[in-house]
Design brief:
six-stranded mixed β-sheet, alpha+beta, HIT family, subunit A, elongated, 13 strands
Length: about 300
């Protein structure tokens, strides 16, 4: 007698046929092939970088910082890293250990809100024999988990990956950490439409959404923009509006949309004319940074197409 197993594959009355599925994580190929190597300690380099977006640095404390893993085991895989270059816990001073421990709860709270995950793997791999890819600068992994997802280990059967491009996850996570650790109460957005040839403004400024306790900041931004911008999607981090006062900064997300159906107070402004508008200087700086990123991405895309 032949019966089907849970996957609809032939089995036998003596038990299931064990089949092997594949977990595809192509972004890790650069790491496996050695193409991701850089001079010096990658964590010291991230500590010293002035470009937090390129370095995937999400938040900086006094003694440590939080960064995303460029080669994640799962969507939202982040690391808490001490500033000091040390391989073992006994070489880390108490203020650093305390700060790292205190960072973990807001990180998990932010990621849970952003990604709606069911749990986390938290841990340190101390030493190469324990699995540390960078053994001489310790770091704590925080890996979001979903029921039925890929396990923390790379070889599993019957698994599923919940994929999202790293720039989008970075933007969502950084905004939410700004809320957890920086007390952000609102989120702004640079909304690119018509192939990034126009930018949406609301009442003459970048759209600003107030934070809601039940929503992550990125969803509050989409709730505001969605009705007037078809196909709106978070694509990256745009910057922060710090303002003149002592209050919390406002995270700014980049949103791309296919088109617009404008309502009262909304307008689409050509990127060539954006500097003529009476935007705040900080808003202009953020928009210019986003447009520069778009131009660089388009140039790289053209170069890649030329090579192939």
């Amino acid at each position: 007698m032949v019966r089907g197993d849970d996957n609809g594959l032939p089995g036998s009355e003596y038990g299931r046929i064990v089949t092997q599925n594949h977990l595809w994580t192509p972004w890790r190929m650069q790491y496996i092939a050695g193409g991701a190597r850089e001079l010096g300690c990658i964590f010291c380099n991230r500590r010293d970088t002035e470009d937090d977006v390129a370095g995937l640095v999400l938040y900086r404390g006094t003694y440590s910082y939080i960064m995303m893993n460029l080669f994640p085991y799962n969507t939202g895989h982040v690391m808490i890293v001490p500033n000091d270059h040390a391989a073992t816990l006994d070489l880390i001073d108490d203020p650093t250990l305390i700060e790292m421990a205190r960072m973990a709860p807001p990180v998990t709270a932010a990621l849970r809100r952003v990604l709606n995950c069911d749990g986390f793997n938290l841990g340190l791999n101390l030493g190469a024999v324990a699995g540390a890819g960078v053994a001489d600068h310790l770091h704590q992994h925080i890996v979001p988990r979903w029921t039925g997802d890929a396990n923390f280990m790379p070889i599993l059967a019957s698994t599923m990956v919940m994929p999202e491009l790293i720039p989008a996850t970075y933007a969502k996570a950084r905004a939410e950490l700004n809320r957890e650790l920086g007390s952000a109460t609102s989120v702004a957005s640079v909304v690119l439409v018509d192939g990034a040839r126009s930018i949406l403004l609301r009442d003459g400024h970048l759209p600003l959404a107030e934070a809601e306790t039940r929503y992550p900041l990125w969803l509050s931004a989409l709730e505001l923009v969605g009705p007037v911008a078809g196909g709106a999607t978070i694509t990256g981090w745009a910057g922060e509006l710090r303002g003149a006062g002592p209050g919390p900064s406002v995270p700014v997300l980049t949103i791309r949309a296919r088109g617009e159906a404008l309502a009262d107070g909304w307008e689409a402004v050509s990127v060539e004319h954006i500097e003529r508008r009476e935007l705040d200087p900080e808003e202009i700086a953020v928009v210019e940074a986003v447009l520069a990123t778009v131009a660089n991405d388009e140039e790289r895309s053209t170069q890649n197409q030329t090579r192939h």
